[in-house]
Amino acid sequence: MNNYMIYLNSKRCIGCHGCEVHCKINKGLPVGPILCEIGHDPLKSVKGVPKTEFTFRSCFHCDDPFCVPICPTAAMIKRPDGIVYIDQERCIGCMACAGACPWSIPQINPDTNKAVKCDYCLDRVDRGKRPACVTKCTTHALKFVTIKEVGL
Amino acid sequence: MKKSVYSMCGMCTVRCPIRVEVENNKVVWIEGNQHLLGGALCAKGSAGVALVADNERPQQPLIREGGRGAGRWQKVSWHTAYDYITDKLKKIKKEHGPESVVLSSRGGPWQDMYKTFIHAFGSPNYTNHDNTCGRNTHHASLSLNGVGRTGFGYDIKNSKHLVLFGRNMFASLKIAENLQTMDMLDNGGRLTYVDVRQSMTGLKASRFFQVRPGTDYALALGMIHEIIKRGLYDEEFIDRYVSGFDELCYFVEQYTPQWAAKECGVKEKAILDFVDEVAEDMPQVIFHPGWNLSRYKDSFYASRALHILNVLMGNIETKGGLIIPKGPSDCGIKGIRNLDCPKPDIKRADGVGWKYKHFDKGPGLAHLFFDAMEKHDPYAVKAWIAMRHDPFTSMPDPQRQKRFFDNCDLLVSIDTHYSEFGWYSDVILPESTYLERDNPICLQKGPKPRLAVRRKALEPEFDTKAGWEIFKQLADRLDIGDYFPYKTIEELYEWQLEPTEFTIDDFEEKGFISLSDKPIMFDRQELAGQFNTPSGKIEIISKKLEDANLPSLLTYESPRKPPKGMFRLVYGRAAVHSHSHTINNPLLHELMPKNSLWINKKIAAKLGVEENDVVDVIAENGVTERVRARVTEFIHPEAVYTVHGFGRQIPLQTKAYHAGLSDQKLMVNKLDDWDRAGGAINLCETFVQVRLSPNNPKRSVEL
């Protein structure tokens, strides 16, 4: 059972891609891996005004993740609160996780040759803070939601 | 050891307030100031960390060895560079007089330092980049309101309707303003957006006028006509504070919404519906008078019309309207001290103040120094010091500019990165990045004025120095060091703060010092004295303009249609780059490595151009830039659009080198195309030819 999710208020999102860089800087990632991504549909004219919806994609932190059992070194771990993260000490960079994931979410960090993925910035979450992308979102469009809050 | 430093961002010139956490001289966290922005920061703000690490920036002072622009540099010590520059300056001063030296800067809150330096040296010739940015808006406001562009702040959060003419605020980010606008929209406010193309701001709009390029002024005139016709203006405010209203009524009679709709290529009903909305929302309607309105031949008058619309709304010093910024004296306290040296009593080389009396003498106009370089008219200009200013990127036609600058004996660039001008200059003094340097304290006026300061978060990665130290060292060697009464930044802070009750430690709690707990608003019945025009009123008929033989209300002239097969080249910004100086940043380059050429779908089909095809963009004299096409229905067929700042030609910037298209290089012979009333260069008056590139990217003979 996941305790958390990241919610994007598309109305406030301005597609500035700040979240993507906030994430990379917090994780110290080089050029290459991008752990969260803003996307949008092609523009459509609605009453003469071009409109689109923005989407935010990072990792789904699946209830029953394929990436966890396939990991040969048990580096991919699902915590009781639902966060799926990679123990960088144990990871050998074989990328079996990316192959097992339907969305190929884990990516290689070319500096360390190990897998990286969104872990909701668990070090921050454990200190009572929100993930980097949410904390620094340019227009406060991203929200870090604990599932209880939305009543599920 | 971990430390937390409040500072000011420097990735663009908005200078958002930030807080930086540092461990072992590395940034471990950087965010928008929680007290002012709730942590919000843009992509560029985070990528500041990559700027510090980027070794493709100048790492020590450099003196040119080969010909200008050859890229052969001698690495020298700071002492050698300072001596080299000051020896040359002394020689130039002796041979041509001190006025033959020009100093240009980007602009911004630390201009006092640069002005002090050049004035103390004996030259009146300080200038900045505003001739390619906000000069038209600034002069429009001065001629009407008697105060410049920053003479009003915008209370967007409490407004009901924000009207933006090409002010693409969700790409040209200013985070505090963006948050205000989002909050306003969340509260049910309206956003009307006018542009020749869709933009991120257009996406958030409730109404979008896609106008024919160069017709902003027509649309504004149509709006004024209808607002006056329906009597939707603040009569009391106009009676009390405004002159020339009757002339305005007479003037706009011919400019009906029906006419404006036809001229702009929009629906008349949309203009009428818009005015219905204004009627509901006024006086909390803000017409943003524009930012970078150095675009069309009548941009100055378009901006003037937008200022007039605000006056009609009577929104000045009203909640949800235009607020007069307050300073320390309005809070009943003393302000900080800034460096100062009176301007020498010599005519400016750009003619501003004597030949062109209606322009602000402060920074003059950078594009008007070229005659002095070439023809020594009114006297020779022999040296140019560019402080974070890149004339070759901001002004049109760098090839032609180079021929003018070749008349100079000394070109100096002080910058954090290699600018195109820097690459051509004689000496590069590398300034430390904003995370590695302190800057003087500055006053940020507003309804709640505050003092702000940039503090060094890191020790410099390379042998770079802060501007305050560079100017002090140069000044000492030129015997004008007394104008810079400090040895260290701490001494400068102490000197700045001496008249106040504050110390530099007072910035530590929040990163700024608030001079007032609550917003200060003037009594709207007592605004006399706020409008610094010759008459003291808001002058719709401006004495200054009329004295300069310029009309206050310009008869509208339809913009030229591009010749067959040609398009009007318009430019803008993306949210992930600050013009040219972030193109080589590894993390921002990763998001946007190149620009593209936007072209209308129907036109593209006629040219046989499909999305992502390579196209040639050809200027009048055959200069060609090659770029990928972005085909969209949301751009006017007369225009093609690109993001400014790309197409750089500095080999040491391996990521930015020749990546994308450079709009200013296509603006051939456009240095003379400038606005005699507003002062700015008309940067959107260039026509280019576009064709599917004959280069076939698929063909390769390699085995």
Distance between the termini of chain A: 11 Å
Structural category of chain A: alpha+beta
When the domains of chain A are counted, the total is 1
Determine the oligomeric state from the structure: heterodimer
Strand content of chain A: 15-25%
Tell me about the biggest sheet of chain A? 2 strands, antiparallel
Shape of chain B: globular
What is the number of helical segments of chain B per DSSP (H or I, 4+ residues)? 24
Under CATH, the topology of the largest domain in chain B can be stated as Rossmann fold
Plain-language structure description:
In chain A, 18% of the residues lie in helices and 24% in strands. By secondary structure, chain A is α+β, with helices and mostly antiparallel strands. Chain A has a single domain (4-150), classed as Alpha-Beta Plaits (2-Layer Sandwich). In chain A, strands 1-10 form a two-stranded antiparallel ribbon. Chain A is globular, with a radius of gyration of 16 Å. The mean pLDDT of chain A is 95. With 703 residues, chain B is α/β, with parallel strands linked by helices. Chain B folds into three domains: 62-133 and 335-514, Rossmann fold (3-Layer(aba) Sandwich), CATH 3.40.50; 153-323 and 532-547, 3-Layer(aba) Sandwich (Dimethylsulfoxide Reductase, domain 2), CATH 3.40.228.10; 566-692, Barwin-like endoglucanases, CATH 2.40.40.20. Helix content of chain B is 29%, strand content 17%. Chain B is built from 24 helices and 27 strands. In chain B, the strands form seven sheets. In chain B, strands 5-4-17-16-15-6-7 form a seven-stranded mixed sheet. In chain B, strand 10 (190-195), helix 8 and strand 11 form a beta-alpha-beta unit. In chain B, helix 6 packs across helix 14 (299-313) and helix 12 (257-264) packs across helix 13 (268-281). The chains are: A alpha+beta (152), B alpha/beta (703). The interface between A and B is large, with 30 and 46 residues.
